[in-house]
Please model this.
Amino acid sequence: MAKDFRYFLAQLTEVVPEDTVRVTREVDPCLEAAALIHNLEAKGRYPLVLFDNVKNMHGKRSSFPLCMNMAGSRQRMAVAIGLPPDQWRMELTLKMQQLLTQNRNIGTATVARGEAPVKEVRKVRGDVDLFEFPIPKYYEHDGGYYITGMPVITRIPSNGHYNISINRFHVKDPATIMYGVTPGTHSRLVYNEYQRLNRPCPVVIVSGHHLATYMATQWAGPYGEDEYADITALLQEPLRLVPSETWGEDFLVPADAEIIIEAEALPGEWGEEGPFVEHFGYYKGFKGVWPDGPYGYPMPRNYPVLHVKAITHRRDAWFVPHAAWGNSCVNLLTGKAAALYERVRLVAPLVKAIYCPVSGGGSYWTFVSLKHRQKGDARAAILTIMAMERGHNKYVVAVDDDVDVFDEQEVWWAVASRTTAEDFIIIPALPGGGCDPEALGASHLEEVSTRLGIDATRPFKQPFSLHATVSEELKKKMDPATYIERVSRRSS
Ligand SMILES: Cc1cc2nc3c(=O)[nH]c(=O)nc-3n(C[C@H](O)[C@H](O)[C@H](O)COP(=O)(O)O)c2cc1C
Model:
């Protein structure tokens, strides 16, 4: 069986059965589904949620069930790439980095239409109807219904390679969506190439595939690489592809997806999109002032219009998006931490771990731990991280390798105890504000942000105050489970 969405669900049920929950009561994807995920997160719970009974955009019961929060836990992501669930910290990021750099030659396999589950139902031209799907509206102030958190594929006209990403799509009518393609991203460079050629730009949205396919979208390699190799690297098997309905052999799409949406952007056709919550939980841009408060009114953006040309799907297909904010979004960004690790290794070879915590929207705080090979390695690591990814990595903290970057309290303890004001490095005007509400430019490409690096490592080869520790042997021996039990038994 190919590694697809159903394979992953089965894998998960076997390894961590308690990680999947089912909702059989009727739920409206308009605000209700996201509110349930939000409530679970507030209680520190991040299960994959299968909604059996959801409404479609016609207001009727949808024949497509909805799965949300697939990437809600790093434990699930570990399982997706063949690790035990408890290896979700740096083991996960490291394994992604290793697979995405060393496992790129697996290749794809093209299958005939009859062998592709995603071709069981084919709808073209007048028959396409996005409103049949349970497309969520996530938050109250969102401009409408959004398809988001799904792999998105484009094809680079100059070299024929495929680019993968995640983008948001504002649904305007049953066959028209807006393409949320941020300036500066590779997807936008692909779109620009078609614009220059005055040709329609094909865009394919993949709903429902193995979680590894979703995770692959956030790896940041050089522009122009064939990114189907990113997916095969994480799947660790060939990705099965099939000719699309619209472009045939010229655009191959994942054969084992639940749903494929094929769309085209016509040259020069743009329209209003948004507002939509960004991955920091804000609506960016102001259009006047919010009527009852000091907030800026969320501003719609101007994005390319996409015309849906064909939809193919399995007979009992799942609709599988991810919210653009919250744990599942932040976890998906792990591919970026893996890419950071790959770059930092070049300047600070003894780098140990990198983590972008949820509190920083998954990319605005970046913590890096390392051992010094020579004086200045921590600063080199900080500058390398700051320069990656436009607008992200706004604050970068470097700590020694005895500090656990996955424990925010430990990181702030190191900042408090191992820095002086001289250890704070400010670099103004680096490219891009991205989703940062503090960075507002006339246009995305004019946005810059000031970055702060904190070198919270101990001074190189200089004596430093001794830190109290408890030996591993003693930690093991003095297990509270053993001792607390004895104390209470004796006292009773
Ligand atoms: C849940 C989620 C939603 C995202 N939404 C968008 C989006 O709407 N537009 C966008 O340009 N990037 C979005 N991103 C970030 C891009 O997917 C990411 O930067 C990707 O690496 C860009 O790939 P590219 O450079 O090949 O285009 C999103 C990421 C996640 C995890």
Q: What stands out?
A: The chain has 13 helices and 22 strands. Residues 5-330 form a domain with the Pnp Oxidase; Chain A fold (CATH 2.30.110.10). The radius of gyration is 24 Å.
